[in-house]
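Thread: "does anyone have the structure for this chain?"

Original post by V.I.:
We have the sequence but no experimental structure in hand. Need at least a predicted one for the grant figures.
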Amino acid sequence: MRIFVVLATILGLTTIPAHTAAAAGATGSCPGNKPAVTTFHTATDWYENLEFDGRGRVWLANLTGNRLEAYGPAGDLRATVPLPAPGAIRRGPGGQLYANFGNNPASHAAPSGVVRFDPDRPAPEPYVTGDVLGSANGAEFDAAGNLYVSDPFAGLVKFRPGGHVDPDWRVPLYGANGVTTLGGQVFTTLLLDPRSPIVRVPRARPGEHERLAELSPSGEGELLDDLAVGPDHRLYATTYGSGELYRVDLRGRSCLLLSGLDRPTSIRFARGFGRPGDAYLTQASGSVLRLRFD
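Reply from O.Q.:
Generated one for you, tokens below.
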């Protein structure tokens, strides 16, 4: 993600559009109380993503430190795992963790793929290798165990259980970044698109993808990063460039939930970690925030 700021300038914030639908823009500040924000962890490194292992730890992808870090609910360091330029981390079938590596478009020719490991005995082994991915960034599983990985050059790629690419399922969205799934749908963000779109992709008909929402419809380009599904079945999306967190419902209606963040990169809602319903947000500035929803 770090090189995307440069790429966005060079490319003039252009991208290949998804099919056009009635994409909605943001409609102002979200109603109701804002989440209470506290700092969970702070460092000088770029934190790109995170995941909860269901065993009392949160795993952080330290992009510039080239490692994964596991912390307990009190912020105590539990484990570190070397991994070059890690991107998304996701809990998959059987409770194993899956982590992207080679998330650096500046070295597109460098190896990139996905590893997996037991969080209690973290010895990563290859899950996805080869030349399918050039800069694996976001990722998410569906209920059937398929893994969807975003790559700014390859677009959105589906891997069947076992790590084999589905040759009949690929969505060539340039600049694809965050990924999440809900039911029969996959959602991805387009970082380099000046309208900051969230794209909805039907799992059964990937060619019929369309824009669910555009968070900057006037074209100012907020550098939309990763997103997650909340307990309320709405999407929560971070904007790296503008330092904001948006909430988007499945009809495409969006609102601004938080502003004043420092290069937010991802958000996840806690599972088996701390207080249920809390969300954690990573930032390229080196801090990880805890969001408490009432």
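V.I.: this helps a lot. The radius of gyration is 17 Å.
O.Q.: and The longest helix spans residues 4-11.
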